[in-house]
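Why run this: before we spend reagent on co-expression, it is cheaper to look at a predicted model of the complex and decide which construct boundaries make sense. The entries below are exactly what would go into the expression plan.
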Amino acid sequence: MTSEAAFIEALRGLASDPAARGLIDDAAMLEVGGTRLVLTHDMIVEGIHFLRDDPPEDVAWKLVAVNLSDLAAKGARPIGALLGYSLGEDEWDRAFISGLGSALQAFGLALLGGDTVRPPLGAPRSLGLTAIGEATGPVPSRGGARAGDLVWVSGSIGDSGAGLRAARGEIERAEALIERYRLPRPRLEAGQALASMVNAMMDVSDGLLIDLQRLAQASGLAATLELDAIPLSADYIAALGEDRDARLTAAAAGDDYELLFSAPPEKAADLLALADELGLPFSRIGRLDSGAGLIVSDSAGNIPLPDRLGYQH
Amino acid sequence: MTSEAAFIEALRGLASDPAARGLIDDAAMLEVGGTRLVLTHDMIVEGIHFLRDDPPEDVAWKLVAVNLSDLAAKGARPIGALLGYSLGEDEWDRAFISGLGSALQAFGLALLGGDTVRPPLGAPRSLGLTAIGEATGPVPSRGGARAGDLVWVSGSIGDSGAGLRAARGEIERAEALIERYRLPRPRLEAGQALASMVNAMMDVSDGLLIDLQRLAQASGLAATLELDAIPLSADYIAALGEDRDARLTAAAAGDDYELLFSAPPEKAADLLALADELGLPFSRIGRLDSGAGLIVSDSAGNIPLPDRLGYQH
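The model came back. Tokens follow.
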């Protein structure tokens, strides 16, 4: 267990309120006067979650998007946000504000408040956002899956991870992939429509493999993932191929901000109809059964798990 | 204007939702299903808001207390909090959790969620907390004062600033003052009782002078402060005296987390009765009139303002 996992475990001991959902979900659910509020707080740190030379406008977008992705996974409509901002060079700060304005407008999100601090010179920027949303229906947790559920994922997987490598110059430059890395699109509309159809839902932020493992664990079930069913984009395939290695790389890359959800097999037709309606593909990538653990298989049968399933906290 | 002030001014341009209160208050007010939620997010940074060798338990307390002080100033009862945490050495982190647990328990605050990040090695810690409260009555802003109001402050002023100097070894060690610096007590009970009696209220976090100036400015009024009426504790007087210099130092020190409020003169008896009931002194320290600006006077008449009115953003 990493010390971060131990820290979160210790925090869990303090989070006894049912609204905290045992800190297992990425968001809290608070009932206020008959309204179900969904609350999340995500931070991004320079050198860890974004690169020093990423455009500040895109960093602002990403800060908003990663938080709204948590709301999307709980079927919530965004209401407002509080910003925790570390000041740096004026020019960077001005560009950040411009990007923040674009993101707020794009998502219809109200900036409600927050705090700015000036950290000691040379300290990496640490930015936080609290997003508040309202659930219009059920608020699915990641622990609600049932044995026999099929596992689905929205959109395509791996693009953002490949985009990060392209931005770093590790692979050939590919603008569409870099854009997926810098400007993730939280699946808000899909999340709100899916909330009443699924048994469990979360967003894919740390990697499909590790996030599916968490969903299965939180639900007390075993997950089987069909590697060949993982949706890869044409851009991803052009950059990294689609063989087993390329698929495992995509599945462990993280930063996808797609929705991962489970539903009984009889919901499949409705889910595919919804995907059509939204113009966003939903792919069946596996199933959940009694037991525990994660199995990955392809045409050769079960295959060994990679050492790294995703971003490990 | 500092670049932080310019940044906040630019943010203000994005915060058009009425719930944001123009980012003039330290907290946002969001109506949800007939309930008035008060939301605040404050950050504390190592080397700026706390010292590297402050006990981690006390840093946790302070992070909670500074946020709850914002809720107190809006008359809100705390409900829950989201934590944004930068991991460091395991031992420090463990001690922080222990202090966090004490603070949550002391204030009846539920830990609802949050995020942990591991910043690059050697980066100063940056900690954030979002606190959510519920207002049981009116939610006073800092801009609601009226001409003729008397200005009041709770408790005593300057202790925390003197405590910081004592902790740094700049003045003689005084445990009671250091405790005021490390373990501030948000005036939650007083804030809730005062909310329906005052025209304007805020907490004193950056310094009495600068915060009174802000209250006057937000209300479109001129403030007059009677320096000799500023409440100093016996510990403060023992450490730094009570002459004009000592009083100006206290009034510009900050980190007091007392309540600063204004009310019509005819409320004075009720306010003093409430102070008695709470066992927390309220002191009349000045008044608000038509006009603009800040005047400080003592027995010698109006005196020049110090160069520094408090912690300047």
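Chain B has a mean pLDDT of 94. Residues 56-73 of chain B form the longest helix (18 residues). Bring this page to Monday's planning discussion.
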